[in-house]
Write the structure tokens for this entry.
Amino acid sequence: MPSIARAAAAVAAILVREGFDYAQSKAVFKTARQRAGLYAPPERRGGVARLTVEEELHFLDRAYAQSGRTGLMLQTLLETGARASELVQLRVEDIDLAERVITIRRGKGGKGREVPIRRELMQLLRLHVGARRAGPLFASRQRGSGPVSHMLTRRRVGQIAREVARAAGLTKRVYPHLLRHTVATRLLALGMDITDLQRFLGHESIVTTRLYAETTAVALKRSFDRITDPTAHALITGIQQRHGDEAAVLAADLLAQRRAERVSTAGA
């Protein structure tokens, strides 16, 4: 086992002798590691956090109870997979109600994309927009100090999401990007092609999108592991093949709950 103290003393003597400052010493270590073939191990990322269906319902119910505007804003954020920075820039002119498409003009990296929306969300946005033809889609009630008055900030959207989650009794940390994770994993589980999901989310690299595929697989395996009956396994596998991962996860949860109820009843 090499002596770290002895090696550190030798390196320190070299740095002092050569007169390197802190920034230069960092460059020295980086170059030395590269020449020695030493690289940081690849980062191991866990599953992507998301809301369950039940948590999502509680969250949106609480948001609409607070106000129709708050509920619609968070529902739009959730269903479109938009980043908070993209949501606050949305304008009435970006909503094509006839085509059911929202145009995000300045996404990450300055790239734009078109995001389809469900008919139900389209109807709600139609009522929200009313007779307006221009202006922020979700305006701030307070006049801001930025170049555009009454424009929401990304920070404010995050604050609203946290307040609603707290009022809904969610123990999970809820933030705008969590809603993006939620819709991404759900769409993938329901059968959306991963390249289509990449375009939907505006990911530059397909590698980022694949993280959601890994999350779906982990969730499905976790549900499978709670069921030990081979017949149940066959049933869930059939549901997965016919209806996709999301339906299989839900069925696995229901079967696990029923099994737990039977055990509880037998022990009573």
The chain has three domains: 4-35, 53-203, 226-260.
